[in-house]
Amino acid sequence: LLLWTVAAILVGVTGSGVVDAQSASANRWRWLNNTYWYVPNQYLLAIASNPSVGAPLPVSDQTVYYISNYKAGYFWGTTAVTYYAANSEPSSPSCLQLVGSVTPEGELHLTFTPLSSTDPQPTIGIGTMTLQGGAWTMENQMSTEPAGNLLLTHWAYMFQCSPGQPCYRSLPGVKTSIPDFLSPCLTQPPG
Asked: Which of 65, 73, 79, 163 is deepest in the core (most CB within 10 A)?
């Protein structure tokens, strides 16, 4: 009986420690809640391609995430994205729902679903949380068919941006504020 009691206590302690460690790991990224992410100027380059068009075309792609919620390794929110060729003006952003997961080690899986499509085909992205200059970035990559029959391929280090920073007032490439860029995609503008 004493042996069974000791074994039960050890299992209880070990199990509790594992659960606590898993909980702490899953909550490592809880600071993602209520954050904004954007593409800095040096990472705006993306490639639009289709064999029938000929050579792939360089385009600019500004993407903004507003992560409104985080829970136990999952996060979700709104994405606004626009891409445009050189010597042309950016169009109004496309709006997508973002649902992602982040492992305790920082591996990312991202799903973007269009908000205004009758046949929403999701775009899947992958990435890694990466420290740069003492700040966390999202090193992401994805390919999608955003319009017509062009494939858009993009990788970028996305940086966090907070109200009061220059990026919040004027996004690279589109020269509009984060709230204005996101406003067509949100039912309530960000604060």
From this structure: 65
**DSSP E strand stretches across 33-90:** 35-38, 45-49, 57-71, 74-85
Report residue 156 as tokens. Answer: 């970028």
Question: By the 8 A CB rule, do 113 and 96 touch?
Answer: yes
Type of residue at 51: P
Cβ atoms of 83 and 146 closer than 8 Å: yes
pLDDT value at 5 more than 50? no
As a whole number of Å, the end-to-end CA separation of the chain is 61
| pLDDT for residue 14 is more than 70 | no
Which residue is it, tokens 């920082």? 106
Point out which residues pair with 41 in neighbouring strands.
none
Global pTM? 0.83
Find the radius of gyration of the CA atoms of the chain: 20
